[in-house]
Amino acid sequence: xxxxxxxxxxxxxxxxxxxxxxxxxxxxxxxxxxxxxxxxxxxxxxxxxxxxxxxxxxxxxxxxxxxxxxxxxxxxxxxxxxxxxxxxxxxxxxxxxxxxxxxxxxxxxxxxxxxxxxxxxxxxxxxxxxxxxxxxxxxxxxxxxxxxxxxxxxxxxxxxxxxxxxxxxxxxxxxxxxxxxxxxxxxxxxxxxxxxxxxxxxxxxxxxxxxxxxxxxxxxxxxxxxxxxxxxxxxxxxxxxxxxxxxxxxxxxxxxxxxxxxxxxxxxxxxxxxxxxxxxxxxxxxxxxxxxxxxxxxxxxxxxxxxxxxxxxxxxxxxxxxxxxxxxxxxxxxxxxxxxxxx
Length: 343
Ligand code: NAD
Prior knowledge:
Layout: E1 15-21, E2 26-34, E3 40-41, E4 44-47, H1 52-72, E5 78-85, H2 94-106, E6 111-112, H3 121-128, H4 145-164, E7 173-177, H5 181-192, E8 196-200, H6 204-214, E9 217-218, E10 231-234, H7 243-248, E11 253-254, H8 265-273, E12 277-278, H9 281-284, H10 287-292, H11 301-308, H12 311-325, H13 329-340
Parallel strand pairs: 3-5, 3-6, 4-5, 7-8, 7-10, 8-9, 10-11, 11-12
Antiparallel strand pairs: 1-2, 2-5
Helix pairs in contact: 1-13, 2-3, 4-5, 4-12, 12-13
The protein binds nicotinamide-adenine-dinucleotide.
Nicotinamide-adenine-dinucleotide binds at residues 144-145, 148, 177-183, 200-203, 206, 221, 235-238, 257-259, 285, 288.
């Protein structure tokens, strides 16, 4: 196994902490990529990994991702991430959570945790009984989905301005993949502006009900990426932009809320080569994390919304730079984020 410093995802992490508590079975990694802009903030993932190396790699990759996302959101926060190594039965006990909370607390606020895959809101409340360094607790801003949806809506308008020359959404045709918390909220904003929507969801009843409410059309979740429209908005799964699906897109822009939309970096280039405007996912979908981290500087709703209002400006900055440099929007976003965190 290579030394930690030599791992491809190490990327000069400020510190990586390994915790082992045989009494409770806790095994955890807390990776702190950067505290340049503030305490390293990012969720805790509880997952059964194939091996320890996979857990460490995941922590490093996700932690760096949080540095970039938080920086591009204009937040007073750095980036970090925790992973808890679950056994095959995914046994999670109160004692284990208490031990993990002590681990978080031992870092003295350099790392702030929040909910991620495998951790519930109740788990977060449990952690908060032992450590103050927990974000997104009940009563602190609530569900991030509506905030993410509003930021994505503003980002879709920015993409329309860039690709179509106007952000008047009346009559603009938008295909939305996934109409849950984010995609559903986005659809409502756009319908109110008079956009022409095509909705798809693996839960076809959900798409049909929303379409009936908003006067939209529906299509199958297999067909949504090939719909002829102005903008495609991925709001379901990650990695939907593959070589094949990008080749089949019949749109001028891709702007949506899903995380990790590009299957590989090559699809960023493929979109650019096809002249399709792409809104980098972690820039456009930052509304949720902006809301979750409100307690870092006690931001109220007005301050949260003002931060979300900066998303279109960031996107235009990325697209301007992309046009000038020839780098793809995803590459430009990473470069700007690296500059913001002093790398
Ligand atoms: P959600 O579970 O509320 O909604 C997702 C919807 O997508 C569901 O209705 C589901 O049935 C549908 N879906 C799943 N697979 C599909 C497929 N193959 N084709 C079409 N529809 C499919 O989730 P959400 O909170 O709206 O999140 C959506 C995406 O946005 C995710 O990628 C999530 O990681 C990302 N995201 C969410 C937030 C947030 O604040 N909720 C923040 C940042 C990023």
